[in-house]
Write a structure and sequence with these properties.
Blueprint (H helix, E strand, L loop, with lengths): L1 H4 L9 E3 L4 H14 L3 E4 L16 E4 L6 E5 L4 E5 L4 H10 L2 E2 L12 H7 L6 H4 L2 H4 E7 L5 E3 L12 H5 L8 E8 L1 E2 L3 E9 L2 H13 L6 E5 L1 H15 L5 H17 L1 H11 L3 E9 L1 H17 L3 E2 L3 H8 L16 E11 H16 L3 E9 L3 E11 L3 H21 L18 H5 L1 H13 L13
Parallel strand pairs: 1-3, 2-3
Antiparallel strand pairs: 4-5, 5-9, 6-10, 7-8, 7-9, 11-13, 11-14, 12-13, 12-16, 15-17, 16-17
This protein binds flavin-adenine dinucleotide (FAD).
Length: about 475
């Protein structure tokens, strides 16, 4: 993005191809192998780690014409489809037949099934339906030599290591996923929301942990820290204001944004003096009786953790705006500023330490806020949004890299994984070995066995 602002594109592909059939890709891979030309699988291009950047040129293999739904098995509740299908199209088709996939990443309009599997994506309702690795039952992959590998879609098996899992999160470096069979669910009879305010992050996290460990699975769980709570509420208020006030609000917002980018520390201080509460949003869906029970028990748990019931409306607001994405960059981005997200995860015993350490480490230099989501019985993820600005493009880039180095080392030192769902791609490649350790040797060996000419997405994932 920093380069794009300067109208610089550092890497171009030599070709972009749009296959509509597997056999075309098989032929292409055989040719690319013989000529040693890089091939980069491309889904929606929504990945945020540079995974589709053609750092060594070559062929961009755009999979969006591979978009057919091949079968819906209404007895087993599974769907089989081609990997280039856009998430929203798949979900709409399933909804029309009375089902849901339950996988709703914020990028659902611009990301594909293949991209989700290749990056181990998480939807906003992952607490109930799981991450994509919990949803996918079987895949079909074209290997770098053009051969086809199909893993069977069965509920469970004990026939050796799970070969399918090797391709999940491999980000186009080991094979091209062309089809997948996924678990689906009956479309929920009801959907319901609740929200609570807590005095601090610690109490909010304790409530989430108690809910999950009592066996309840809300569909969505989001705990905003103090600053993120203010921002969430500001957005809400702005929406409900009369149109007459919107130019004034916009002016105020621009001024605040400028302050945040110029003096992030001041922004952080201002926010911590204003923000006193943290907001938890819970959503529930499924059979009416079960939802009512889950909601009631969750409420009891929140109240026990000194939560204040703030009603359904805030939850509904989140639901209605859950896919809102600003495709137009704010004006401040044109002044050597950058914004990014850092999404990490760990177990409950470490999550607070991870959150506070990372926040403390970065808040000296960047404007920072966070929310906790994707909760599990044993832990959850935390998603930081950071913003800062430097004098010129070069400084901005160096500063950005230093911020990431510090964030990653703080995360690893506190027992976190460096990515919960965005993946590794190009930008986090240099850190992967630190996380995988001996696992990186196995990954490298797999790569050289499957792809000896290194044609599939070279230069990514620290390879
Ligand atoms: C506004 C916004 C919101 C987002 N919200 C979320 C979110 O809520 N949850 C989440 O998990 N992520 C989110 N992301 C990140 C991104 O959408 C996900 O990583 C998504 O899974 C990428 O899918 P894609 O089809 O766009 O993949 P791409 O960006 O096209 O590719 C990503 C990587 O996967 C590889 N790849 C793609 N298709 C295949 C295939 N068929 N076979 C093999 N390799 C392949 C590519 O080579 C690349 O390395 C968001 C991104 C944006 C921009």
């Amino acid at each position: 993005l920093i380069s794009l602002k300067e109208c610089k594109i550092n890497y171009f592909p030599d070709f972009i191809v749009h296959p509509a059939e597997e056999v075309q890709m098989q032929k292409l891979l055989k040719l690319a192998n013989s000529l040693k030309i890089p091939v980069i699988p491309y889904g929606g291009g929504s990945g945020v780690c540079g995974g589709t950047t053609p750092v060594k040129g070559g062929i961009i293999l755009d999979l969006k014409k591979m978009n057919k739904i091949l079968n819906i098995d209404e007895k087993s509740l599974t769907v089989t489809c081609e990997s280039g299908i856009i998430g929203e199209n798949l979900e709409k088709k399933l909804n029309g037949k009375g089902y849901t996939l339950g996988h709703h990443p914020q990028s659902i309009y611009c990301s594909t099934l293949g991209g989700w599997i290749a990056t181990r994506s998480a939807g906003q309702l992952s607490t109930k339906y799981g991450k994509i690795e919990d949803i996918v039952l079987g895949i079909r992959v074209i290997l770098p030599d053009g051969e086809i590998l199909e893993t069977r879609a069965i509920p469970r098996t004990a026939t050796g290591p799970n070969i399918m899992q090797i391709f999940l999160g491999s980000e186009g470096t080991l094979g091209i996923i062309t089809q997948a069979t996924l678990r689906i669910h009956n479309y929920p009879e009801v959907r319901n929301f609740s929200s609570f305010e807590f005095e601090d992050v610690s109490l909010g996290l304790s409530a989430i942990r108690n809910i999950l460990q009592s066996g309840i699975r809300p569909a969505g769980v989001r705990l905003y820290d103090e600053l993120d709570t203010i921002i969430f509420k500001m957005t809400k208020e702005e929406d409900s204001k009369n149109k007459i006030f919107s130019p004034i609000l916009k002016f105020a917002k621009d001024k605040v944004e400028k302050l945040i980018f110029r003096r992030p520390i001041l922004g952080n201080k201002l926010a911590s003096s204003v923000g006193k509460k943290v907001l938890l949003i819970l959503s529930f869906e499924g059979k009416r009786e079960i939802v009512e029970l889950e909601k009631r028990i969750s409420k009891e748990i929140c109240l026990k953790n000194k939560g204040e019931d703030t009603g359904e409306e805030l939850g509904l607001k989140w639901w209605n705006h859950r896919f809102d994405v600003a495709y137009n960059l704010s004006k401040v981005f044109h002044s050597c500023s950058f914004a990014d997200t850092i999404e990490v995860a760990t177990t409950w015993d470490r999550i607070e330490k991870l959150y506070y350490s990372l926040k403390e480490e970065l808040s000296k230099d960047v404007f920072i806020m966070a929310h906790f989501s994707h909760a599990y019985q044993e832990g959850c993820s935390v998603y930081f949004s950071i913003m800062a600005r430097e004098a010129d493009e070069q400084k901005s880039r160096e500063f950005y890299d230093r911020i990431w180095d510090r964030a990653i080392s703080t995360c690893l030192a506190n027992g976190g994984t460096i990515s919960h769902h965005h993946g590794v791609g190009y930008s986090k490649g240099k850190y992967l070995e630190e996380e995988l350790k001996e696992g990186m040797r196995i990954y490298k060996n797999l790569k050289s066995t499957l792809d000896p000419n290194n044609i599939l997405n070279p230069g990514k994932m620290g390879l």
